[in-house]
């Protein structure tokens, strides 16, 4: 066999060997980081607990805002305009008016509720079915529910001049207050998320810094032997990521426990208002995203501290 053939056959082997070594070190770094966490259970529990609370607070506020929006109705629903037609307007004319308004450029959607539908809904929701059935005739008018496409105030003013319309119900002030509160809550959740996320990052960084200090001599020996910064940094990165992943999972567990504690009394409260509302937590994709983001947060904190240490303690030639 020629030298060229031998060189060609050993090149892939060396490549596989380097790849295997790289993979083995990643696995070793991950296992070693988990082992260091388990060897210090009290310190690990404190670090993970602080991180979990810092992650859970903005997530809990975000989930609460989402449930409040579901309970009170979406902003689009709160913009809806209710048109109560005059009682002498026939259902056929109400349907024709519905089609006319549906063609307007400032109307996004429109729904017609006939007097019969209104009476049936009243009978179901009020609990006075027998008393309502005893009433002669149907005193309810036709109702048009209009969803605006643009400025709902201008649309409501325009619709109030229709000859078939008796009453226009549109609480613009309530809608604006709801919208403002929701925007404020979302902004507050973002601010808390950034501040508490920074706090969690600092907690991980300080924990990793203490671990670096305890292994200072080992790091110095590795640097003198020619180990790269990536090789030295890798175990600490996995340590920070492990803290983050476990803290994210614990934060989700805390929020799930809070949801279960509040679900029954809130369901009873909603049922007293004739609503079937129930709390909605984080589904699986969101839970996975939160856990991954928490791990990335821990990875970044560990990387920042480790990189700073390596830059400040490079061996002199």
TrEMBL record:
Cross-referenced Gene3D superfamilies: 3.30.70.3040
Pfam families found in the cross-reference section: FtsX, FtsX_ECD
Subcellular location: Cell inner membrane
Keywords: Cell cycle, Cell division, Cell inner membrane, Cell membrane, Membrane, Transmembrane, Transmembrane helix
Domain FtsX extracellular: 80-168
InterPro entries per record: ABC3_permease_C, FtsX, FtsX_ECD, FtsX_proteobact-type
Domain ABC3 transporter permease C-terminal: 191-299
Entry superkingdom: Bacteria
Recorded topology in the membrane: Multi-pass membrane protein
Transmembrane regions: 42-65, 188-208, 236-258, 284-305
Subunit structure of this chain's protein: Forms a membrane-associated complex with FtsE.
Family: Belongs to the ABC-4 integral membrane protein family. FtsX subfamily.
Its job: Part of the ABC transporter FtsEX involved in cellular division.
Listed name of the protein: Cell division protein FtsX
Organism expressing this protein natively: Lysobacter panacisoli
């Amino acid at each position: 066999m020629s030298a060229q053939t031998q060189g060609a056959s050993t090149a892939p082997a060396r490549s596989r060997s380097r790849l295997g070594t790289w993979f083995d070190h990643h696995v070793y770094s991950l296992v070693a980081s988990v082992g260091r966490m388990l060897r210090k259970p009290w310190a690990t529990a404190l670090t993970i607990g602080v991180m979990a609370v810092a992650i859970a607070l903005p997530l809990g506020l975000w989930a609460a805002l989402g449930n409040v929006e579901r309970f009170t109705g979406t902003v689009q629903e709160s913009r809806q305009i209710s048109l109560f037609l005059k009682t002498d307007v026939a259902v056929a004319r109400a349907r024709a008016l519905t089609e006319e308004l549906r063609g307007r450029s400032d109307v996004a959607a429109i729904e017609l509720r006939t007097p019969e539908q209104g009476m049936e809904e009243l009978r179901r929701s009020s609990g006075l079915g027998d008393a309502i059935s005893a009433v002669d005739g149907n005193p309810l008018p036709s109702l048009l529910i209009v969803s605006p496409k643009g400025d709902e105030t201008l649309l409501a003013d325009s619709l109030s001049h229709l000859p078939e319309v008796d009453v226009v119900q549109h609480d613009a002030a309530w809608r604006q207050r709801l919208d403002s509160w929701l925007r404020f809550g979302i902004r507050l959740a973002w601010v808390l998320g950034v501040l508490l996320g920074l706090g969690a990052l600092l907690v991980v960084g300080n924990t990793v810094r203490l671990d670096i200090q305890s292994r200072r001599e080992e790091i110095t020996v590795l640097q003198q032997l020619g180990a790269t910064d990536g090789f030295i940094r890798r175990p600490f990165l996995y340590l920070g990521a492990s803290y983050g992943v476990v803290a994210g999972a614990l934060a989700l567990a805390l929020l799930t426990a809070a949801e279960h504690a509040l679900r029954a009394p809130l369901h009873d409260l909603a049922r007293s208002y004739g609503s079937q509302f129930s709390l909605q937590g984080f589904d699986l994709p969101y839970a996975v995203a939160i856990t991954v983001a928490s791990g990335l947060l821990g990875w970044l904190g560990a990387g920042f501290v480790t990189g700073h240490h390596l830059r400040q303690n490079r061996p002199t030639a």
